[in-house]
Amino acid sequence: IVMETAAAIAEAPQSLDGSTTPPPPEDANEGPGDAPPLSAEERTSSEEARRRTMALHLMSAEDARRMRFLALLCGRMGERTVAGAIGEGYPSKAFLGGDATSTTTSAPSTETTSGGGGHRPDDGVERHRRGRPSGVGYLDESVPLLLSSMADRFLATVLVQGMACRDRRLEGYDELLRERRRRRRHRARVLGERRERERRFRDEMNARRERAEAAVADAVEVERQMKEQINSKKGNKGGGAVSSLPSSYSAAIAVVQKTREAQKQTNGSSRGKSTEEP
């Protein structure tokens, strides 16, 4: 299809600005009566050439429209290139009807369009070529412009995404450091509160132990004083003075019990004496 399109464009004459002109008549002096009758094959070939010319006009107009649109998209409407203004056709000898041996696509195209057994596209291919929405544009700047715009968009997307990933990574690292500092402060606060509770507990237990020891010491002192009083009055009837002071709760309780027994005995003896005196 590409070679047939190139052959059709090569057959149709073009101006330097890329626009096609209708082919002039073969002989302007010939009258309608002098023209020989055309055979069916000649009529078919002339109709095919006319359809190719119409397809060429349509392709050129669509290519120019597409090139202007791409130039507007790329922002290069005011620039000038080797091929002239953007949107115009690319001048080539093969397309301008010049030396056909300079390009590789012109040789097979001349063979296909030459008469005498050459391949002719069927009507379906021709209708598809005429009805397609836009031209191929192999020799214009549509493909480079499109590739350039796609590459620019791709690079811009990659750069933007890379910057976003870097920012998110830095933000995540900063947030991780802040979270570590928060956890460190929380752990220090928890450990401080635990140490404070343990200190208060130790202070309370020490105070209770001191109070208990003071109470035991007071009881021992009272017992010692009572023992001394009993020994001084009864002539040491209770079994002698206490040689050593107890230092435990059980010893203190035993001393208190003995003191109570001694008090009972003292009270009983005093009551007996009071009854004998009258």
Automatic annotation (TrEMBL):
Regions of compositional bias (Low complexity) in chain numbering: 97-113
Region of interest (Disordered), residue spans: 9-51, 97-138, 256-278
Domain of life: Eukaryota
Biased composition (Basic and acidic residues): 40-51
UniProt KW Coiled coil keyword: yes
Keyword Coiled coil on entry: yes
Coiled coil regions in record: 202-229
This protein's UniProt keywords: Coiled coil
Protein name: Transcription initiation factor TFIID component TAF4 C-terminal domain-containing protein
Protein's organism: Cyclostephanos tholiformis
Source taxonomy: Eukaryota, Sar, Stramenopiles, Ochrophyta, Bacillariophyta
